[in-house]
Amino acid sequence: MSTSFFAYKNERKEVRRTLRLTCRVVREVDFKLVGARALDVSPDGMLIMAIGEAKLGDEVIVSFKATELGIWFDMEAVVARVIRGLREKDRGRCVGLSFTKIDPVQRHILRGHLRRVAPPVPHRTPRIDYAATIRKIAGLAA
């Protein structure tokens, strides 16, 4: 069976964009540095290179400068993913952050800025949405 019959599921609300930039990410509880380099960013979160220790659920404060105007973005986030860097395609120890508090105007500005930046190449094949695949096949048979 050809893979063109399958419908793939995008589980992200927003597209991540490859954007390497300097940032400061500190744990809220003790202000220890978690990371200082972002690898990709979306209006919902970011992936950073890990310097310090972080656990799932840790609350952090994120600060970075972006856009052509050099606007500072300061927001709160939670650690949503910890990458230990053991797989071949991993870029080392990384931490995935999910923004929890971001000003709506800043989100809009960031979204507009990110539209001009390329998305990263996926490391895994997308998950198949089996329900959508069945609907697609049923529609072809009709």
Structure description:
This protein has 142 residues and is of the alpha+beta class. The protein has one domain (12-141): Thrombin, subunit H (Beta Barrel). Helix content is 16%, strand content 42%. The protein has two helices and eight strands, in the order E-E-E-E-E-E-E-H-E-H. The chain has helices at 104-114, 130-141, and strands spanning 8-9, 17-27, 33-42, 45-50, 59-66, 71-83, 94-101, 127-128. The chain has a six-stranded antiparallel β-barrel. A hairpin with a 4-residue loop joins strand 5 (59-66) and strand 6. The longest helix is centred in the last third of the chain and has 12 residues, at 130-141. The chain is globular. The two termini are 19 Å apart. The mean pLDDT is 80.
What is the N-to-C succession of helices and strands?
EEEEEEEHEH
Quote the average pLDDT. 80
In the CATH scheme, what's the topology name? Thrombin, subunit H
Lateral arrangement of strands in the main beta sheet: 2-3-4-7-6-5
Count of the domains: 1
**Strand percent estimate:** 35-45%
How many β-strand runs? 8
The CATH class assignment is: Mainly Beta
Low-pLDDT ranges: none
Silhouette: globular
Q: What is the CATH superfamily?
A: predicted glycosyltransferase like domains
